[in-house]
Structure formats: structure tokens, C-alpha cells
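Self-study notes.
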Amino acid sequence: MTDIVKLNVSTYSGEGNSRLHLIRWLSEVDITVEDRQLPTELGRPLFLLSKLARKAKNWALGNLVADASCFPTMASMKADMRLAFQSLQYESLERSVFLSLKQGCMSMLEYIQRHLVSCITTHPFDMVTQVHVFKCFYLTRKAPMTLEIPSRLHYA
């Protein structure tokens, strides 16, 4: 006799600290969908919808009321959920953690700068990462109190 294991997915509300765990929850849903072998592409977004709660469910049902075909695939629903519920600071938080790591005896920032010099023309960093590095590390340098000081230094 074969034992059948039924995977269960927790509900996602889109509120509180659980907002930071949207990616983990979507991975859990993917595993369950693959395990259950949902046959139709239409059944997958409906399964995802059945696992939403409170704010997230209100958001999804509101979208469905406005446009019944707003979630044609599970991928489109997941992309819309990321835009709606993933914290705007999440990407910046992960980037900060990444840049504060050490690579050998160098900080990650030094390692990235060294790598940038070696491949600046072939593989430049995207603008979001460049802005983040600028905000975190350039803005901590001392700035002159007035504009007269740099102009005096420039014309001296």
C-alpha cells in the first residue's frame, strides 16, 4: 500500500512581519502545486487565491471584481502580489546585509569595487546597486559646511 502525503500551505495575510516572508511563502506554494500536480493553469491561481487571508485576500478579490481575467496564470498573480505586498525596503535591506559581508580580508564593498575595476566595461552593476552603494558609503563621508570651502579649494 502506498502512503499519500498531502502537503499543506499556510495562509498569507499580507500584514505585519509576514510581509517580509512573501518569497518564502510563494516557494512553499510552488512546492505544493507541483506535489498536487494541479492539471490546469487556471486551477493554480485559484489554489493560490484559496491560501490568502485578510488583507491579501481582499486585495485579490478586489482585483477579480474589477477584472475577472486579471490573474490568467499563477506567474502573473505572483508578480502582482510581489508588487503589492513585498516591502519596498526589502530589497534595500537584503542589499545592505549583502554589502556588509566579508569576502576574505576585504569588506564586500571593497571586493565589489575591485571587481568593478576589473570588468567595468563588460559587466557593469545595475543602477539600483550603484545608488545603494552611493547612499550607504559615499554619504557617510564628511561634507563641507558651506559651498564657499570647495570653491576656494577649486580656484586655489
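Second protein, same conventions, sequence then structure:
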Amino acid sequence: MKSGRMRLDNSKILLALTLTIIWSIFGAILTIVLGSSHGYTSYDGFALASATTLLALYVIGSHRRTVSIETYASVLITLSSSTIVCSFWSFSSTFIRSWYIRIMEPYRTIFGTHMPYFWAPDSEAINSILLGGKYFPIMELAPSIVFWICLTFFSYAFFVGSALVFRNVFLEVEKLPFPHTQVYLELTPYSSMRRFSKGPFKAGLIFVLIIQIPYVIRQAIPWFPVVPINWGQVFPFTVDFTDVREIREIYLPNSVLTFGYNPWHIALAYLAPMDTTLSVWLSFLLLQIVYPALATWMGIIPVNTSKVTFQSARNWRWINLMYGPLKPYITIGVGGLIGIGVWPIILDLAFRGGRRVFLERIGLISILLGATGLSCLAYLSNSPLIQTLIGLLILQGIGLGLARIRGELGLLIPPLSKPLNTAFWYRIYPLKTMDLKYFAYLHIFGGVYSSEAGVSFTSIPSLSLETIKTMRSWRIEDLEGFYILSLASIAVASAVYFLVSLELFNAYGVSAFPGSKRLFYETVKDESDFLITAVSTYPPWPWWQNILYGLLGIGIVMVLGFTFPWFPITPEGLVISATEVAMQGFWSSCLIAWILKKLTFAIGGAYLYEHYGKSMALGVILGYILTTVLNTLVSLILVIYH
């Protein structure tokens, strides 16, 4: 480190890694005991870890002594980076699915012989662990533990390193810090929002608590009264536990127009730039109504005569995906996201001489470390190197797109994994999928990166990157030290989380808790079924052309936006409008937020928005985070004592 730089001392490193260990242990307990069916995912873990720890730091700083900027930064980084592995989905798509394929038919016959020995122990060891109550077979598990920890570590290094190299390109593009991080920063004395108003903030917080806490209580007391308001489809950081989640819908010939008005979604969209929220709902209407109507009228898309419900609204998604030239689910959802990450770099290199491409040493080393490590793992797994490198290139483009989309990131990731999954399966289809040569590629890229686990592998590192970006406003220059700390937290979290999860399996058996039962008998079975059905039912088509069309199309949208200030479509809004979250009602929340923001500026201008609007929206978001924490704890208590 250069002299004069702020640097981490041993006490801050020890604090950060201690928190990593604590949250990894707790995350493993929540994964096995609760599982996704009880609302615990990587998002809930990040909310739980971040909200409680940072609130504690704030209390300490307020009543005892000032907590240093470096302490806040180190806590944010370790929480966000370590949460990548504390996820129901990442555990199910790595360890548990390998186990399932090893011991269950017909997967054992079809795929089991292709599986490297270090992906999963032998059948006897797996069955012993699943039954529970026996000694922990650490020697039998050691090879697979090392392999999956290395995969997690190198993936993190690759994605974050890619974004670090180009972070100066991204820093000035978006106007708003990542909302989740922004909420936590508002709790610190180092807030960048100078006009923060406590009154509206508390009003938004209390409003959400009044609405949501009765639903948390109803988990334990079924007759407890709740506010008779249904907010629509639930997404991360929302807590609506009503048994019936009614969605307002309009049925069209080839689409389902779903309305959602969740306060969390509205608050998130209210904080986002107005051109983004305008673009989301406007682009959605074009893709959901205009495009299907034209395609049906032209005979490109067959008429869907059956009445669909919300759960089968996917019919439109697949019709829109399978027929017609646009295929927006992949063209815009995947190709467009890659374009968002790639085009700013291309334009900077072409017109600015690369002045904002930050080719720093730590980023380049991180890319090389991640790519080399992943290539070695692919080689050991008999995966074709060329296919692996192509997959990494696609994932790097997606990672850059995620780093580029800042304020909107929280709602983009979950639906992204599904079109990405589909794209990889179409790529794998023409290959000889049952051959040993392609099994590892199929399993890792089609099952880990592009499944629900991709939520963790590609999005959570971006949270750590957001914290590193935010340090610029804190005037912290020791980015290398914080980056190395984030890598260390990944290594520690991976080892602790996997070991504790496996020990819980071994101690209590697979049938002991709701989370473990769902993990093995439902989630992993569904993913394993997809290994068979995808290659036999999906017709091959050149999906890479659609990704290329999306990449070029986003470039055109960017040029139009730069050339014509009145152009209403932004790249971020267009990509979000093509994802499942928009289909499930987020588009109408964006419309409501856009109207509210318009009214705010019309009534009181920027002063009213900065002093009151932002503060109230942040209170709403924090209220949902806190009720997520309460819900997780109540669910855990109920499962343990019932």
C-alpha cells in the first residue's frame, strides 16, 4: 500500500471475518431449518445480516464512540460478499444436486457415471448423511467441499474483478446509489444525503410496520386481525403472508396484463431516475400488448384461446419466447443486459480514448485469477475448455451489465436467471448432452450459473462492488485492502457455510426440517428433472443471434437517448420490462411511482423531493427489511418449537 492511504488494521479485519463466520453459521441454520418455502433466500440473509449488524454499529457509534468509516465499509463488504454462499439456491445447485444425481434414478444411470468423483462422495456416504445421527464423514466429503468452495471463490473473483476494471465507466452513469446500500448508509453519520428528513422517514417506516407486522404475528396467531389490503405478488424484502395473493389481471389474446401495487416496489421505483421508471412501464406495454397483438395479427404467434390464471401467465412468456422474430425474454432480457455492460466501455474506448477504463492491477489480477481457476476446474471436470470460456465471456458481459445497473439491480436478478437458463439449454441441445465431455459444462453453466443459484453467483458480488464504489464519496483509497478482505470473507464463508450445512444434514437427517426436506425432495428433484426434459423437449434454435440482436438493439437505444433528449426509452428500463418481474406487476408499480414523482416535483420541486419524498421512500424500504428480519426469526421459532 502507498503511504498516506487509509488502511485496514488487524482489529477491523478480525471484526469483519468474525461477522462472516457468525452469519455463515446462522445462514446455514436458516437454510436447512427454514428453506425457501418459509421465505429464506440469499436476499433475506443479506437483509437480516446487514440490517441488524449495521443498526448495532449505529447504536454503538451514537452512544459510546464514533465508529470509523473503515469499520462501516468493512462490515458492508463482508456482509454482502459472504452472503453469496449463504443461500438456499446456491447450496441446492452445488452440493445437493450432485448428491441427488449420484444416488437417485434415473439420474444416476443417465448422468451419474459422468460425474467426477470430487463432485460428490459415494452413495454409501451420502445415504449415511441423509439418514442422520452418525459420525461426520469429513474425509469422504473433503474433495467435494474443496471443489465447490473453489468454484464459489473463483466465480466471485471473476465477476467482481471484471466490474472493478471498468468501474470508472459506471460511476457517473447512474444517478442513484444501490437502494439497499443507501438505506444502510442513511443510518450512519456519513450519509451522502444532506437533506435527509427524519420525520417523513419515520412516517414511511411506521406505515409499513403497521401494515406488515400483523402478518408476521398471524404466523403464530392465526386469528390475529390484519389490514385488509392485498399488495399483490411478493418479492424479496416484502412480507405479505396472506394465504390468498390476489393479482388484478386483464386477459388479452396472447398476454396477461398483471397489476401490482406493492409499497416496496413503489418506493424502490420512486428512488430510481424518472426516465427509468417511465421506460419500464412504457416498454412493458409495448412488449406485452403491442408486440403480441401485431405478431398475432401477422400470424407469427398462434392465438392462445384458453383463459389463463396468474400462475399460468408463463404461457405468454413461452409463446413470446418460442415464436416470432423478437423473443424478448432472451433478446432483451439477456442480450440487452450484456449490451448495457459492454457499450459504455466500447464508447469510452472509441470516443474518449479509454480515459475512464480503469485498468487497475487488482481488477486485472482478479479477472485472471477467476478465469484461470474456473478453467482449471473445468479441465479437471472434463468440461470442454472452449465451451467454458464462451460461457465465461457471456457471464462476464452479464456481470458488467449488473454492475452498470445500480438502483434497479435489486429487482432485476431473480427473473434474469430464467432466460439465461433457457439460453444455455438451447446452446447445449445440439451438443451431445449425454456425453461425458459435456456433462460438467451442462451441470455448472446450465445448473449453477444459469439456475436460481445464479441469483447468488452473479448478483451478490455486485453488492460488494456497490460498497467499493460508495467509498469514493467516503474518500477511502485503500480499495485493494477492502477487495482482498472481500475475497477472504468469501473463502471463510464458503468453508463455514458448507461445513455447517452438511453437519446439520448429518446430525438430524434430511427429513428433520422443512428446509432440508424441500431442499432434497422438491427443489433438487425439479432441477434434476430439467437436466433430462430440457434436452429432449427444447428444439434447437440459434439463441446466440437473439443475444446479438439484443446487444446491438441496446446500443441503438443508447445512441437515440444521447441524440434525442426526449426519447422515452432507457436501456435499463427496457431490460427490466422484458423480465418476469415486470410481467408480475412491477410495471404498474413503476407507473404509480412515476406519477407520484411527477406530482412531487409539480407541487414542491426538487426541494420537496429531496427533503421529504426520498426520506419517506427510504423509510418504506427499511420497514420491509425490518419485517423481513422479524418474519425470519418468527418462522425459525415456530419451526423449532412445533
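Instructor comment on the second fold: Strands lie at 248-252, 255-259.
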